[in-house]
Amino acid sequence: MLISKDEQILNLLGLAMRAGKLVLGSDSTLTAIRGNKVQMAFFPSDGGQSQSKKFADKSSFYNVTLIQDYTKRQLTDAIGVNRSVFAIADRGFSRKIKQLISEKERN
């Protein structure tokens, strides 16, 4: 059985969490973005509008990929912690997720 690109991405987030490669929470994530410590951040599609804008602006200014394709529920379930805002502090995980997203957009 083939699993969807979304499921693969969410599974990778779980792996990154277990590997200790995630920066969790709004403040820590913003600090990591400002410090150029992360390449990719996640913000829930059903998150607040002002927070969403803040993350979009910071991400674009610091050239960080911001993913807003998943709900709070999906993100929380994927990493097993009640956090829906986080960033990936690992180039390997970021690269693989970017690859899956571009494959998903092509199909």
From TrEMBL:
InterPro entries per record: Ribosomal_eL30-like_sf (IPR029064), Ribosomal_eL8/eL30/eS12/Gad45 (IPR004038)
CC terms in the record's Gene Ontology section: ribosome
Entry keyword set: Ribonucleoprotein, Ribosomal protein
Gene3D superfamilies xrefs: 3.30.1330.30
Keyword field contains rRNA processing: no
Keyword Ribosomal protein recorded: yes
A family per Pfam: Ribosomal_L7Ae
Domain Ribosomal protein eL8/eL30/eS12/Gadd45, first and last residues per copy: 8-96
Name recorded for this polypeptide: Ribosomal protein L7Ae family protein
UniProt cross-references to SUPFAM superfamilies, sorted A to Z: L30e-like
